[in-house]
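Summary for the steering committee. One of the milestones for this cycle was to obtain a three-dimensional model of the protein with 4'-phosphopantetheine bound, which we needed before selecting residues for the alanine scan. The sequence and ligand used are listed below.
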Amino acid sequence: MLAIYPGSFDPITLGHLDVIERGCRLFEKVVVAVLRNPNKAPLFTVAERMEQIRRATTHLTNVEVDSFDGLTVTYAKMRQAKVLLRGLRVLSDFEMELQMAHTNKTLSDDVETIFLATSNEHSFLSSSLVKEIAKFGGPIDHLVPPSVLPDIYRCYAKTPPEPVLTTDSTQLLELHKTVSPREKV
Ligand code: PNS
C-alpha cells in the first residue's frame, strides 16, 4: 500500500525522518509530498526541499519525493493512494491534525489519515525551531539530517549573525512566541 506523507518540510528535520523511516516499515512505498504553498514564505524553495529530503533518505529504498499544489486529497487520489501519513508530537498538534483529518475525510471518504506518534526524543522538534536556533547561531546538528546542515548554515551565513541565544528568560520567551505551536515534525 502507498502512503502519502504531505508537509512543508522547510527544512526536513530528524522528526520528519523518523516518521518517514517508520512509515517505510509499514507501507510498500512512502511518497514524501512537499506542498507548493503560495501563502507561505519558505526558507528553501520546493526544489531545494525535495533535494534535501532525497539526500536524507538515500538509505531507504521505498521512498519517493514529490511536490504538489492544491488539496492533499486531490493529490492522493491522483496517486491512487488511500493513506495520508502524519506525525503527532504533542497535545497541541492534536487539535489541528484532527481537524485536517476530518476535513480531508469529508473531501474524500476513501482516504484515511494514519498518525504515527513521534519518537520521544523528537517530540519538541519543528522546522521553525531549527530555523530559529540556526538564525541565532545555535547548534542544530542534533536536529536535522547531516546532509541538510550545510544548506541551513549557508542560508544564515548570508545575513549578519544575530546575538547567540542565552538562557536569559526574556529571550527564551521571545523564541517561544515566534515558534508556532503546530509547526509539524
Ligand atoms: O508540514 P505542515 O506545514 O504542517 O503540512 C501541512 C499540510 C501540507 C499537510 C496541509 O497544510 C495541507 O494538507 N495543505 C494542502 C491544502 C489542503 O489539502 N487543505 C485541506 C486539508 S485541511
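Key point for the committee: Residues 6-8, 35, 71-72, 100, 103-104, 184 surround 4'-phosphopantetheine (CB under 6 Å).
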